[in-house]
């Protein structure tokens, strides 16, 4: 797959809740710097985090409105609409950076205001 195809599938699978297919987009040894989950290395570690997504969110949608691809890199600006497990709404503007090699994501980072995620963060601490 091309870089643009990988990125398009990333959001397609997230929005469809197809987490197993989503995880296959990542290289086995990828690295992610995720604003809420922290530094993540390897697909198996990601699998453990994704396994809890239904406990944390009752819905999760991430809609890209700008995708820029430059060689192996991609930048995506998106609008996230979600809800905590108890139904509290979450809306955030998100920026994601991707590095894709051989049709797999090898590095990813995201950036957003953490304040909209307070219902999830408070839920995790409670």
Topology summary:
Blueprint: H1 3-16, H2 19-23, E1 26-34, E2 38-41, H3 43-50, H4 53-56, E3 57-70, E4 73-84, E5 89-101, E6 104-112, H5 118-125
Parallel strand pairs: 1-6
Antiparallel strand pairs: 1-2, 3-4, 4-5, 5-6
Quick description:
This protein is an alpha+beta fold and 126 residues long. The chain has helices spanning 3-16, 19-23, 43-50, 53-56, 118-125; strands spanning 26-34, 38-41, 57-70, 73-84, 89-101, 104-112. It is built from five helices and six strands.
Low-confidence stretches: none
In the CATH classification, which architecture applies?
A: Roll
Beta percentage is: over 45%
The name CATH uses for the topology is Nuclear Transport Factor 2, Chain: A
What does this structure look like?
The structure is a single chain. The chain is α+β, with helices and mostly antiparallel strands and 126 residues long. It has a single domain, classed as Nuclear Transport Factor 2, Chain: A (Roll), CATH 3.10.450. It is 31% helix and 48% strand. It has a 6-stranded mixed β-sheet. The chain is globular, with a radius of gyration of 14 Å. The N and C termini lie far apart (42 Å).
